[in-house]
Amino acid sequence: MKTRNKLAGMLSALVLAAVGALMLSRNVSAAGEGKITGTVKLAGTAPHQRAIDMSKEPYCQKLHADHPVTLENVVVGSNGGLQNVVVYVSEGLPASAGGQVPSEKPKWDQKGCQYIPHVVALDINQHFLVTNSDPTSHNIHPIPTKNPQWNKSQPPGAQPFDVSWANEEVSIPVKCNIHPWMHGWMAVVKGPTAVSDGNGSFTLDNVPPGNYTLTAWQETYGAQTQKVTVAAGKPATADFTFKAK
Amino acid sequence: MAKVFAVTVILIAIGSAIPILMHKWVPPVDISTHGPLIDEQLSETMVEAGISFLAAQFILGLFVWKYSNTPKSAKIRNFPGGATGLVTAAVLLVGLEAMALGIFGAKAWASVYFTPPKPDALKIQAQAGQFAFYFRYPGPDGRFGPIHPDLINEGTQNFFGLDPDHDPDSKDDIVTAELAVPVNREVHLLMHAKDVGHSFFVRELRIQQDFVPGLDVSVHFTANKTGRFEIVCTQLCGLGHYNMKAYLSVLSQPDYDTWLKQQATMQ
Predict the structure, then answer these.
(1) Which of A4, A73, A185, B53 has the fewest beta carbons closer than 10 A?
(2) A231 and A163 co-located in one domain
(3) Helical H runs in B76-190?
(4) CA distance B177 to B127
(5) CB A53 to CB B267 under 8 A?
(6) Nearest-angstrom CA–CA distance, A50 and B85
(7) In this predicted complex, what is the ipTM?
(8) A127 and A180, same structural domain?
(9) Nearest CA in chain B to A176
């Protein structure tokens, strides 16, 4: 009887210690969250980006009369930086990390018969707002394979749609059924993610220290991965270079 | 009460004939060489149908007026059995009228559908898809490259599914969202649908032709006035049907050449 009680006491102590250690370690990682910065570049000559003829929608055609809009399949900045690349942590995130869905709601605007931004990166279940800034109707139609597909018209002045995606998917093509040239992408990933800006730079915030596999996805060139180690309190760097075909 | 009805019927008939007789509703300007025949046919139909309509309404009114006080016990002649002469005459009259319209109208129809385009007509391809029209010009080589449906990609603006890297004929093809044609030149429009049924309708051209999925349909026309006109889809094709349109620009030959050159640089 006595030995049994002792055993039970020891076991409970062990469990308590384990739980305590787990909680402590989580606190430590939360306190020392690091970040990953880097640049995405394109080696070689970017492919020709076709001009878009918007004559079907006179309002949008007039809007871009001085500066015709082109395709955005490969957008390269003056420094060779590649824009619209989705960078995310594809492996190595502890189960406890990235559980918190960002409360910030990115905007997916339909403006001048274009999607702004052209590429958006979202966390799983993160809400985003689809808005229409044009005086004409748009029909937003994302075509996912791992999430339910939908297809909705949004007349001018309509309330924004507040939507989210429940499953990870890189990436969901989006089109407008009324304006066939409108095209964009939504990347749904778990945990920290970013889209490279006009100079090709990106910053992933709130990455706990650890060893990770980082993936960079570009709509024309596909995905690239690399290993990166994040130390507490010190930003890690990861640069990507895509080769023009 | 029956007399009030009789008078109302006749007044409505006269009232609806007035704006037509006063030419208040005129068709839109005609910009095609085959259009006058069609307009003539339409106005003949209007006159014939109008006379029949007025006659029918007047006779209806007169009969209601005249026989409104007939007692219920009066004998009514039914067809078949009685009134055979009257019914035969009516059927012959309407039949002859419809046949006459058909025979005279065949001329207008044949001028578009039974006359092949001239061999030197300008060939332009038109593709209808939910919910926009796209057009393809063969470029300097005069040949259209083959279409590969699996390569159709709206995200890269490859609306026709062309493969210029492997098909030399596709290299100089020019794809546009607007249909521009030179004035006074015959155009042979080669039409196909990408998905469902659509229609190509330009009021001013007096052309309305369906796109049928799986069929290569074609029409030919010569536009004889310059200007910009709306091309609309007139076959219900889905959610965005109401917004499916493009523009037809009829340009002078030099303007057309400039336009085509500019479009070529946009490819």
Answers:
(1) A4
(2) yes
(3) 84-113
(4) 10
(5) no
(6) 73
(7) 0.71
(8) yes
(9) B131
Kindly list the residues of chain B whose beta carbon comes within 8 Å of any beta carbon in chain A.
129-133, 154-157, 159, 176-178, 238-240, 243, 245-247, 263, 266-267
B75 contacts B67 by C-beta, under 8 angstroms: no
Name the band, by pLDDT with cuts 50, 70 and 90, for residue A25: very low
Q: Are the Cβ atoms of A178 and B266 closer than 8 angstroms?
A: no
Examine the pLDDT at A28 and tell me if it is beyond 50: no
Instruction: Residue B36: name the closest of B97, B91, B112 by CA.
Output: B112
CA dist., res. A179 & res. A159, Å (int): 20
DSSP string for residues in chain A? -HHHHHHHHHHHHHHHHHHHHHHHHHHHHHHT-EEEEEEEEEESPPPP-PBP--TTSHHHHHHTSSS--B--SS-B-TTSBBPS-EEEEEE---TTTT-SPP----EEEEETTEEESSEEEEETT--EEEEE-SSS-EEEEE--SSS----EEE-TTPPPEEE---S-EEEEEEEESSSTT-EEEEEEESS-EEE--TTSEEEEEEE-SEEEEEEEEETTTEEEEEEEEEBTTB-EE--EEEEP-
B212-242: per-residue pLDDT in tens? 999 999 999 999 999 999 999 999 999 889 9
- What six digits make up the tokens of B221? 């026309």
Chain A / chain B CB contacts < 8 angstroms: 56
| Domain B122-265, classified CATH 2.60.40.420, yes or no | yes
Residue B36 identity (one-letter amino acid): P
CATH number at residue A187: 2.60.40.420
Domains contained in chain A, number: 2
Q: Do A50 and B159 touch (CB under 8 A)?
A: no
Tell me: do A126 and A108 sit in the same domain: yes
CA A167 to each of CA A187, A189, A215: distance values in angstroms, whole numbers, following the listed order: 10, 8, 18
Decide: A146 and A214 in contact? Cβ < 8 Å.
no
Q: Examine the domain organization and report whether A103 and A22 are in the same domain.
A: no
**A194 shares its domain with A214:** yes
Distance (Å) of CA B117 to CA A18, B33, B189, B206, B222: 87, 13, 10, 17, 10
- Stretch A175-181: mean pLDDT, rounded? 91
Domain ranges of chain B: 2-69+78-113, 122-265
Same domain, A5 and A67: no
- Domain containing A22 equals 1-31
Residue B244 to residue A139: CA distance in whole angstroms: 12
Verify that A24 and A71 share a domain, yes or no: no
> Confidence band (pLDDT; 50, 70, 90) for A26?
very low
Distance CA B205, CA B138 (A): 23
